[in-house]
Amino acid sequence: MKKPATRKTKPAKSQELNPDAPRCGLCGKKGKLVRTECCGQWICDDEDNYVLFSYARNSCHRNHRRYTLCGFHHGEGHPGDWQTCPKCRESFPAEIYVSYGTNEYNFVTLENPPTYEPTHCGACGVVIKLSDGGYSQGPKGILCEKCTRKVFPISKLD
Ligand SMILES: [Zn+2]
Ligand SMILES: [Zn+2]
Ligand SMILES: [Zn+2]
Ligand SMILES: [Zn+2]
């Protein structure tokens, strides 16, 4: 059996920015923009809109700073590129690392994200997305939200 020797070539991205009218690299809006400290990209200057403790993810600037490896890498003062930074890789479980490196808050995403085994609930076996939260860790391993409620019926997750 011969393996098919087809190589996927990436489609050329058409990201031509009009130099006269910069847009936010994440949401595409024009208007009040700043360059990110970490990677020098145009982004909405919208952190003022963020309501403290609301956990809303409506700020481009904040999302990039808080939920990407680029922002983390810069904030921690790591040397070199975040894409190849061993410190960033060590700082998160693979699943979170991949999420932070490929989510929609990135301008550039990880080219070769590491593969990882999905996390399964220790009781019912359902796949748990760590980046979404809503799970618990205990003696039985990681439990999904449903099973956590069964084990701790009085605990409030929400
Ligand atoms: Zn934006
Ligand atoms: Zn950045
Ligand atoms: Zn780093
Ligand atoms: Zn479960």
Q: Explain this structure to me?
A:
By secondary structure, the protein is an alpha+beta fold. Among the domains are: 33-102, no CATH class; 119-151, no CATH class. It is built from five helices and six strands. It has helices at 60-67, 69-76, 86-91, 94-102, 145-151, and strands at 33-35, 42-44, 119-120, 127-128, 136-138, 141-143. The strands form three sheets. A two-stranded antiparallel sheet has the order 1-2. It has a two-stranded antiparallel ribbon with strand order 3-4. The longest helix has 9 residues, at 94-102. The protein is globular, with a radius of gyration of 20 Å. The protein starts with 32 loop residues before the first strand and ends in a 7-residue tail after the last helix. Mean pLDDT is 85; it is low at 11-15. Residues 73, 78, 82, 85, 87-88 line the site of one zinc ion.
Q: What would you say about this model in short?
A:
This protein is α+β, with helices and mostly antiparallel strands and about 160 residues long. A hairpin with a 6-residue loop joins strand 3 (about 120) and strand 4.
Alpha-carbon distance between the two ends: 53 Å
Bound molecules: zinc ion
Which strand order do you get reading across the main beta sheet?
1-2
Q: What overall form do the CA principal axes indicate?
A: globular
Low-confidence stretches: 11-15
Order of helices and strands: EEHHHHEEEEH
Number of extended strands: 6
**Main sheet: strands, sense, barrel:** 2 strands, antiparallel
Tell me, rounded to a whole number, the average pLDDT.
85
Q: Can you give the helix content as a percent range?
A: 10-25%
